[in-house]
Amino acid sequence: MADYHALWESLGMDLGTHDQLCAALPPLFEETFLNQTDRPEGMDYFNMVIAEVHGLRIQELADHKARGGLVVGSFCVYVPEEIVSALGGVLVGLCAGSQFWVPAGEKVLPRSLCPLIKAGLGAKLSRTCPYFQSVDLVVGENTCDGKKKAWEILGQHVPMHVMDLPNRKSPAGFALWREEIRRLTEELERRTGRTLTYENLLEATRRVDDKRRALQKLHGTRKNDPAPLSGTDALVTTQIAFYDDVPRYTAMTIQLAEECLARIAQGKGAFPVGTKRVLLTGTPVVVPNWKLHHLIETSGAVVVGEENCTGSRYYESTTDLSGVRDLPSLLDALAHRYLDGIHCACFSPNEERFDDVVRLARETGAQGVVDATLSFCTTYQVEGENLRRRLAQEGIPLLSLETDYTPGDEGQLRTRIEAFLENLG
Ligand code: BJ8
Questions:
Q1: Share above pLDDT 90 across residues of the chain, in percent, rounded to a whole number
Q2: Which of 111, 144, 151, 348 to mutate to test the pocket of ligand 1 (most atoms within 8 A of CB)?
Q3: Is 422 exposed, middle or buried (0-12, 13-18, 19+ CB in 10 A)?
């Protein structure tokens, strides 16, 4: 990576502490990714994006801002990227996947809180995340209790807009969500000085859906045995989708998917034929959290899918444009895409998620499911019992794990994963 200290300084970052973070990432990336064998060549682009995660992309965001563009941060897949993009903005996921930021978060939050929230706030408070330092606005969402209360604190440090989410997918819930999309549009129009139109929203919707379709194509190749790319590589491609330039990302993902199809035709895989196959479900796995994929794939199995917000929940559904003729009908279609197509444990009931887990396990040929939740994530942990029941009815083996971002539990996790894999048919 080139020297970006001047850029980071202009963003008001704590350079000394940030240097420590930058020093920690390359060895972790090397151990997790570069030590893998038989990787597709198309992964080179994604390796480069990670290597430049605090460099090149931050420079691009700075250039975008210099041209008068808005940069918006978010923590959740319910925040509609299409609207930000239609108004000339760039939406970036605020990663929150590192233990590095947790202690700073714990200065203002209870220790008994999910690490994703603590790392998110810690990244801002410690001024060590250049994405956080680049955003003009953070769009939060009232999903879990921890997040909705954390926004009250985060809002004291960065401009925030909070979207309210319904608890139920009902007609009343839809009306609430549609109104929230209107409120967000109004906020973004005010900040950008632009107007949302049928034309700019349609174009943005197609652009974002092309990205999702590229991901569908890539992840669809993982159904093959042998899987043409590892689950660890597949995971990082989705993680990068949250902040990379959209058209470039789409093109590189299609290229990688084409290579994976060619590998399938040649019988080439990241692991030997017959390697045990696992589907992951649960809470999001955000950059640079690669812990469980790495543990599973160095314990003799391959991860063939992720039913989570850094997996299928991010890319499986697209906006249904049939019947769309004007801005209100397009906004309706978009609202349906988000509300009907994403199944988060913050909704009750949430049976659709169990349907998705069963369907994905069958489609990917997974012999077992790992339900991985972050510590103190009550919503997903409580939902775990009904998931267990459903998978038992379907005859699909399940391993439930709870973990955080620290390496302290890796030995114990590996022992449990190995025992689970041993018993898979
Ligand atoms: S749509 S999963 S991205 S809310 S892990 S912070 S739920 S305590 S991240 Fe999520 Fe949106 Fe739902 Fe997806 Fe709370 Fe749980 Fe932490 Fe979580």
A1: 99
A2: 144
A3: exposed
